[in-house]
Amino acid sequence: MTAGAERWLHRFSRVLCAHFLCLTLVPLACAAPPETKLTTAQIRSSLGGHHVTDGRHWGHDYFLDGRLERSENGRTRTGRWSAQDNQLCLLLPEVSKVSPVCFDVVRVGVQLQYRDAGSVVYVGTVRKSPPR
What is the mean pLDDT, run by run of 10 residues, along the chain of 132 residues? Predict the structure, then answer.
């Protein structure tokens, strides 16, 4: 084999190896994080005493006694929260004083998603509530 042919074969094998790595490892590295639907107990422990926010438009403070303080687009409102039947239930006085709105809570990586019938309603991250 000539020196030129050896160089070509060496380059070809490096390119082939690089393509193989890109096609097999990159999709694994870029795969979406796993989704975990939270149970009633997990919802209580994840939210109670914590603040959930998208960092810009809204934030919810979940107090251990079931109180809820919501800041959404500059407005602050109160309500109540509970976890039941593997769902987060929010009693929002402006919606209803007796019937809570309930969501599935799904952890996706470091984020929580509140879902209604499979549609994502809120996406936020959990932070420890600041002392009051």
Answer: 59 50 52 88 96 93 96 92 97 89 95 94 88 66
Range of the domain at 46: 35-128
Give strand pairing partners of 89: 82, 102
Residues 54 and 71: their CA atoms lie apart, in Å, by: 11
Give me 100's structure tokens: 């809570």
The phi and psi torsions of 71 (rounded to 5 degrees) equal -115, 115
Instruction: At 33, give phi and psi (nearest 5°).
Output: -65, 155
**Positive/negative CA dihedral, 109, 110, 111, 117:** positive
H or E segment to which residue 41 belongs: helix 40-47
Q: Supply the pLDDT for residue 2.
A: 73
| 59 token code pair | 């934030």
Q: Are residues 42 and 1 in the same domain?
A: no
